[in-house]
Amino acid sequence: MTRRVITSIDVARHAGVSQSAVSRAFSSTASISPAMRERVFKAAEELNYKPNRIPAIMLTGRSGMIGVIVGGLGNPLYGYALEKLSAGIREAGFQVLLVQVIDDVTLDAALDQLASYRVDALITALAIGAEETVQAISALNIPVICFNSALTGPGISSVQSSNMKSGHHAATLMHGLKVRHPVWLAGPLQNAASRAREAGFMQGCAEHALEVTRIQGADDYQSGFDAMSAALAQGHRPDGLFASNDLMGCGALDAIRQHTDLRCPEDVVVIGYDNIPQAAWQAYQLSSFDQRPDALVTAALDILARSFSTPDERLSERHEIEAELVLRRSTGRV
C-alpha cells in the first residue's frame, strides 16, 4: 500500500491555521509571528511534513543549492577541503550538490546537470584549461569560484596557493643546501597549479645555476614511484627532488630507496607540496609546502557570501594564499 504524502493542507488542518500561514512559516522572508511559526513547525514535526521546494524555486529562481565539482579525491588535501567547504556552505543556509568529474565528457554533462538543477553558485576544484569550458562555465550566469586554480573570466573568481613563489622558494632552499642536480617531478600537464610551481622552480634553479632534470608524473603515489624509477634506470643520480605534490614525493622517495643507495637527506633532499598527513609519517618525514586549506576555504566562502550580497555585480576576483614551508627530516630540518 502506497503511503500518502503529507501536504501543507494537512499541516494547516492539524495546526488549525490557513494554508497560507504554513507557506509563510517556511519562508525566511515572509511576515509571520513567532508564535504562529512555532505552532506550524510543531504540527509539521508531528506529521513528519517536509516542505516541497519546487514552488519556491519556480517563484524565486533560487534553488538554495551550491554546485561543487571535484575530480579525483585520492589526494587527502581535497577530501579535507571538501569537508570544510560543505560545512561552510551548509552554515550559510545552502545545500551542496556534489558532482565528481573524471574527464571532459563528464565535465560537459556535469555542467548541463548543474544548470538543470538551477544551482545558485558553483565551486570547482578542477584544473580547467580549455577556453570553451571557461565560456560554458561563465555562461551559467551564476557566481563561480575556482578552488586552488588561477582561472578567471566574466563572473569567475579564484583562490589559489602561492604556487610560483613556493617553487622559487624550493629552488633557493636547495641552493642553500648545496644541491647541484635537482629533479622536478611534474604533475599533470593540464594542472595550472603544477605548471606554476614548475615555472617558479625553474626560474629559481636558473638564478642559482642548478642543473635541473624534469620528469613527468601524474598526481598519485604510483606515478611518482614509476617516474623516479625510470629516471634512475636512465642513470640519473639526483641530489635534490621537488615534487608537485606530496603523494608523488613519497612515491619518488620510495623509488630512490629501493633502487639506489642514496640516503635522504644526506645524499638527496626531497620537498613536496600540500603537507598532507602522510608527509609527517615517520617513514617519510617529508618537508612540504602547506597550502593552508582552511585559509583557501575561508577565502572561497567569503567570495560566495559577497556574491549573494551584491547580486547585480558579477565578481571576478583572484586571491592568492601564501603557502608555508614545513621543514622535516627530508631536508635535514634546515
Describe this structure in words.
This is Transcriptional regulator, LacI family. InterPro entries: HTH_LacI, LacI/GalR-like_sensor, Lambda_DNA-bd_dom_sf, Peripla_BP_I. The protein contains 12 helices and 12 strands. The protein has 334 residues and is of the alpha/beta class. It has 3 domains: 8-51, lambda repressor-like DNA-binding domains (434 Repressor (Amino-terminal Domain), Orthogonal Bundle), CATH 1.10.260; 65-161 and 293-322, 3-Layer(aba) Sandwich (Rossmann fold), CATH 3.40.50; 163-290, Rossmann fold. It has a 6-stranded parallel beta sheet with strand order 2-1-3-4-5-11, with helices on both faces. Strands 7-6-8-9-10-12 form a 6-stranded mixed beta sheet, with helices on both faces. It is elongated and about 85 Å long. The N and C termini lie far apart (72 Å). The relative contact order is 0.11. The mean pLDDT is 87.
- What's the number of structural domains? 3
By DSSP, the count of extended strands is: 12
Distance between the termini: 72 Å
Named CATH topology of the largest domain: Rossmann fold
| Element order: H for helix, E for strand | HHHHEHEHEHEEHEHEHEHEEHEE
Low-confidence blocks of residues: none
Instruction: Give helix % range.
Output: 40-55%
Q: Using the coordinates above, name the CATH class of the largest domain.
A: Alpha Beta
Biggest sheet strand line-up = 2-1-3-4-5-11
Put simply, the count of helices is 12
Biggest sheet architecture: 6 strands, parallel
Structural class: alpha/beta
Compute the gyration radius: what is it? 25 Å
Strand content: 15-25%
CATH architecture of the largest domain: 3-Layer(aba) Sandwich
Quick one: overall form? elongated
* The CATH H-level homologous superfamily of the largest domain: Response regulator
How confident overall, as mean pLDDT? 87
